[in-house]
């Protein structure tokens, strides 16, 4: 079901929950879900939640490595249950904030006296805001039995961050903030797990379609897709690596990164090793290098020398296909007349802790059709000395299941589900509520 239909269902459920206070105390779900749709203009991944009193449906962009759920509180935020976190409170401690004080103008929602503040990020415009007010309010999210959605549950005191309107620049139309799914304690996965006492795990399955929804499920598997297939079976597991430095738009904040890094050791194209500087694949003492997974970039970004080596190897393996002019943001493009199917292009392997453990990127996730006659390698040149050497972007995540196990610090991944005749749009959004 598309996100528009979900939006209508959300409005109806929110209206019902005002009077019935669904799930505030007695109901303890084992899993919760968010439907996610790809915005055709920005290529961002969009979801909706219910927030405030009275409840209002809010559109938010997914930020996989984000520290917090942040919302524009400057533009029409009205709620009788809004509560700023006070200096020295448990909420401020949980958020690990370093700034506490009074509003420098007339106090209002998002700028309170004796309140604590953090530094939310908009990764799409590479901007941080150092005056985000830590706040609590009602949040409503949908229960799932991991096969279908159920009723909405209401959380009376969910910690989030209030920001001014300017931080929403660059977000998709109508979006009021971002949902942070990062590794810290006030990100959505950790708060939901703490509130409802289920495992601190979540899974994302992003649809490649702009018309059909993918899904994020908070809690453990199994994760069922139509026709009654558990897509969490046969996952490949690799450690998640902690980067000791912040890696957002302004790196080297005084805490470890909330983003998700994995240990890529080498790269293969069509099964053949690609000669690259392997020092770039490790995180150095300043937090530079390594490989992270991000929805903040629509396509995978490679450090310049890695990009050159991978594209050279890829072109050699497609020597019988005609090269054509570059189409921004891509530099390596081909005539699609010589490629019958994306399955015919060489696979790209991100080799992990051993040669037998790798994330295989097939043509459906590596090739982007930019016109009826032109198809491009969907990787972007990240230039010299970027903060992170490899950023696995959204396009390469689509129709792959990724499960993040935070206590064990492991990532489970499926590689493309298409070879199992499944897409991430196969979740059954028919409600059982």
TrEMBL record:
Keywords: Secreted, Signal. It is found in: Secreted, Extracellular space. Residues 1-23 form the signal peptide. Residues 45-414 form the Peptidase A1 domain. The keyword Protease does not apply. The keyword GTP-binding does not apply. One of its GO terms (biological process) is proteolysis. GO terms for cellular component: extracellular region. GO terms for molecular function: aspartic-type endopeptidase activity. Belongs to the peptidase A1 family. This is Aspartic proteinase GIP2. The gene is LOC107790307.
